[in-house]
Design a protein that fits this description.
It is a single chain. With 418 residues, the chain is an alpha/beta fold. 33% of the residues lie in helices and 13% in strands. A hairpin with a 5-residue loop joins strand 12 and strand 13 (396-404). Helix 8 (246-253) packs across helix 9. The radius of gyration is 27 Å and the shape is globular.
Length: 418
């Protein structure tokens, strides 16, 4: 009798263990399925970027917002993926995502050359800016609110200061004075859209104000990945006016010979493209298509084709087609009314095809354009893909991938998963 009882208990135990193991195995299978669904969303995004044109980038492009390509795309019965980006600026429903990609050139580059842009970010302190600048510079002289090697060496768990450009976005969390609440704000999963846990006060992380608004932290306004390729919209090297000879200028820009000589001479000592405004060649052009004089409008229209820099990659600039008002207002020389004019014009007229549109469309004055043009762009090369896979039972898996399409082939700059 006792033997039968013991055997029965063993059978029940084994049966329960088998059910638990089967349940765990099923859950693991569902997680793997969701992971590959998310991977399918990433591949979809890469394919759309590969087919995108090489000219201006903005809301008119398929990658920006296309529910048909990115919203709950079915791969089998009940198996779907979706690719989301932050909600539209001033959206009535901040919990409603945009179905597309996030443009890294719509943010402020913490690797940029002008500290003033960092100082003008929302809710950043001067001490945090000092610490960021100390982290990326190559010296040991700490700024008033910053820190150098000595500070990081004396921490309970010390680590090395970078003393160079930031390589990943979350590296900001290593900088003195930047706490998780500073980095994340209320956007705990960094997807740019308001979710239940981000609108419930201090009940769940992150702490937030339950006001149906999403306060972005540094992560929502900054990037470490954007850059400006020193190429024209067709992908060819820009014409470097500081080292191009007169014959080349005559051929490539259709200058009159005398204007080409003037530009080549001025280019040897020029520090700014606006220094060429007003140059004028002698004599009459051979045909109506030849350029005889460098006007302000000519410089603005040709902005994407000219340079004075030798580097292949220049510091990241802000895309006027995708940046929010807050980010536009960080640009040195940018006044709130200028940012408002840019946003208003693109909302009414669509994407800017080039920076010259700021002048041709009477969006900015010549003086205003001259102050800000060097920090602006209409093209983007680095994008953030947030892809969620979902199985019929509701199991989800999210991938956050930063991809650069600027080279001969796509390269992954960051890959994050649960």
């Amino acid at each position: 009798m006792w033997l039968l009882l013991i055997v029965g208990l063993l059978v029940l135990g084994l049966s329960r263990s088998a059910r638990v193991s089967a349940s765990l195995g099923h859950a693991q299978i569902e997680t793997v399925q969701a992971q590959w669904l998310a991977r399918a969303g990433v591949e979809q995004a890469l394919a759309i970027l590969a087919d995108d044109g090489v000219n201006a980038d903005g809301p008119a492009d398929l990658w920006y917002d296309e529910p048909g390509e990115f919203e709950n795309v079915p791969l089998a019965d009940g198996f779907t993926f979706r690719v989301t980006a932050p909600a539209f600026e001033n959206s009535e429903d901040p919990a409603a995502p945009r179905f597309g990609l996030d443009d890294e050139a719509s943010r402020v580059s913490v690797n940029g050359q002008r500290p003033r842009q960092l100082n003008r970010l929302p809710e950043i302190t001067p001490s945090q800016v000092d610490a960021i600048l100390d982290w990326r510079d190559d010296n040991e002289e700490a700024r008033p609110g910053g820190a150098e090697r000595g500070h990081y060496n004396q921490l309970d768990f010390p680590y090395l200061i970078r003393n160079g450009a930031f390589r990943t976005h979350r590296e900001l969390l290593l900088v003195k004075g930047i706490e998780p609440e500073d980095f994340f704000g209320e956007d705990g999963n960094l997807n740019g859209t308001l979710e239940r846990a981000e609108n419930d006060g201090d009940r769940t992380w992150p702490d937030d104000t339950p006001d149906r608004q999403l306060a972005l932290g540094l992560a929502g306004h900054t990037t470490v990945y954007s850059y400006d390729p020193n190429t024209n919209p067709a992908g060819s090297p820009r014409i470097n006016l500081s080292e191009t000879d007169a014959n080349t200028l005559t051929t490539s820009l259709n200058f009159t010979p005398s204007l080409a000589e003037e530009v080549a001479e001025r280019g040897r000592n020029a520090d700014d493209l606006f220094e060429f405004v007003g140059l004028r060649g002698e004599g009459q052009p051979e045909d109506d298509n030849q350029t005889r004089e460098i006007t302000f409008e000519w410089i603005a229209d040709a902005w994407e084709y000219l340079t004075l820099e030798d580097d292949d990659r220049l510091p990241g600039k802000v895309n006027i087609n995708t940046a929010t008002r807050d980010v536009l207002e960080t640009v040195p020389g940018m006044r709130p009314e200028m940012a408002e004019a840019i946003v208003g014009h693109r909302s009414a007229q669509g994407d800017f095809a080039g920076l010259g549109g700021l002048i041709r469309g009477n969006v900015l004055t010549q003086e205003q354009f001259q102050r800000v043009a060097g920090f602006l762009t209409v093209r983007s090369n680095v994008f953030r893909i947030v892809s969620e896979g979902r199985t019929p039972s509701g199991t989800t898996y999210t991938l956050a991938v930063v991809v650069d399409r600027g080279g001969d082939q796509f390269s992954i700059l960051d890959w994050r998963q649960p």
